[in-house]
Amino acid sequence: MRRIIVGISGASGSVYGYMALQALRSVGGIETHLVLTSAARRTIELETDMAAEDFEGLADVAHRDDDLAAAISSGSFLTDGMLVIPCSMKSAGAIAYSMNSNLLVRAADVCLKEKRRLVLVVRETPLHLGHLRTLTLLAEIGAVIMPPLPAMYANPQSIDEIVAHTVGKALDQFGIANELFKRWRSP
User: What is the pLDDT of residues 154-182, one digit of tens each?
Assistant: First the structure.
């Protein structure tokens, strides 16, 4: 069985994380480990009609963000990597500089040090030079930087279709087959 860690930070767009958890559950054969930051819990309550427990219910294992002794905090706990969706610039900066003050950042740091896939769906705009330098550092040390940018060729008709495109592209980074979005085909 494959294992994927899903981290949800406090950035706007918690629905991206929710759809990612739904998609991973529907694929089957993937054990998901979820970590929500305290800011993510607040964002979920502000942006959706859901609660953190709705997100946790989609994961096989939900970890507390303050539990730095959780299995996902160790490189000896084997995973296929981690998807941080959405990823705030605060979390991105902490990951870039190994500031392991919470479990989301520690688990991401473990993925980098173990050369496992780390995909960051960074939700910030506009980006200033400090953001760009942080993202450059993350790319240099092995992270995949994947802002949630919709593909207009798919002619999305809803927010769900826009979110599904990003989630599908994120799953592609892990080699997880999905049909969440309309893929480009020659005209």
Answer: 899 999 999 999 999 999 999 999 999 98
Contact 118, 87 (CB under 8 A): no
**Bond prior to 150 in cis (omega within 30° of 0):** no
Phi, then psi, of 114 in degrees rounded to 5: -90, 5
Task: Please list the residues that pair with 62 across neighbouring strands.
Answer: 34
Q: Which of 71, 84, 72, 80 is nearest to 170 (CA)?
A: 84
- Nearest CA to 65 out of 49, 89, 42, 31 is that of 42
pTM for the model: 0.97
The values of phi and psi at residue 113, to 5°, are -70, -30
In the three-class reduction of DSSP (H, G, I as helix; E, B as strand; rest coil), residue 68 is classed as coil
- Alpha-carbon span 43 to 147, nearest angstrom: 18
Enumerate the H helices of the chain as residue ranges: 14-27, 38-47, 52-56, 89-96, 103-113, 129-140, 159-172
User: How many residues can be counted in the chain?
Assistant: 187
Give the whole-angstrom CA distance, residue 136 versus residue 112. 14
Tokens (6 digits) for 71: 């299995």
Q: What is the pLDDT of residues 102-134, one digit of tens each?
A: 999 999 999 999 999 999 999 999 999 999 999
Give the whole-angstrom CA distance, residue 112 versus residue 139.
Answer: 10
